[in-house]
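step: validate -> pass
step: tokenize input -> pass
step: predict -> running
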Amino acid sequence: MQLGLVGLGKMGFNMRERLRAGGHEVVGYDPRPEVSDVANLADLAGALEAPRVVWVMVPSGTVTHETIAALADVLSAGDLVIDGGNSRYTEDGPHAKLLGDKGINFIDAGVSGGVWGLHEGYGLMVGGSDADVARAMPIFDTLRPEGDVADGFVHAGPVGAGHYAKMVHNGIEYGLMHAYAEGYELLAAEELIADPQAVIQAWTNGTVVRSWLQQLLAKALKEDPGFAAISGYTEDSGEGRWTVEEAISHRVPMPVIAASLFARFASRQEDSPTMKAVSALRNQFGGHAVHRISESG
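step: predict -> pass
step: emit ->
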């Protein structure tokens, strides 16, 4: 197939390479001229034969909305836009309508695989009509991992379903990563454990906790023992928050994922106001000692 690809960052760039290796013709656009194949979105549309398929792989939120609105002005009826970024599923309906008013179809695609996707393939969760998904299937087949389609690709439902599935996927990811991280900290705290990295490495085969994330933790510890080179400050890109908000909306108990999200918030506090309040309360009701900040500090 011929495909336009908007956004050539860490994932978009590798997706272009994987698709080209799979025999597709990919015309990429990025604001950075050193990686872009064309100068602007109008040139991108002009380089593609109608009916066009354009994949958007840009940061979620305002950038995605502006990109889709701009594409609505340069594409034609019968074209298809795929939003492969981490957009919130509630944005998919408005984007589908914005494009649909001009006869342009829309698919939302949750994409997992990170920087490893170039060689390992990308897990794909898509939302849209049967006809639109079938039309884009040659692209999905090249991007997904090798093997059974059902093991790396799902048509999750109508527009919005792909990004909803990816949101839940990322919420689970938050919980898994935090469980592994807590396990590492406990191993490192116990002097009986001579080498925490070796223990986590040994979990790679035969154990019930083996996984790709576990292997990546072992790899990271081998490259930077004790994580001496990095701080604990951890960002969140939105999906964990949205997952917890959906859990509240649906009255689904989600203590593990919620706790992992709040732990990320705590990682950004040099000195926790909450724990200061707890310390002050213990001093007030029980006379327990508090650690005073020196005037020089």
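step: describe -> The CA atoms of residues 57 and 85 lie 5 Å apart.
step: cleanup -> pass
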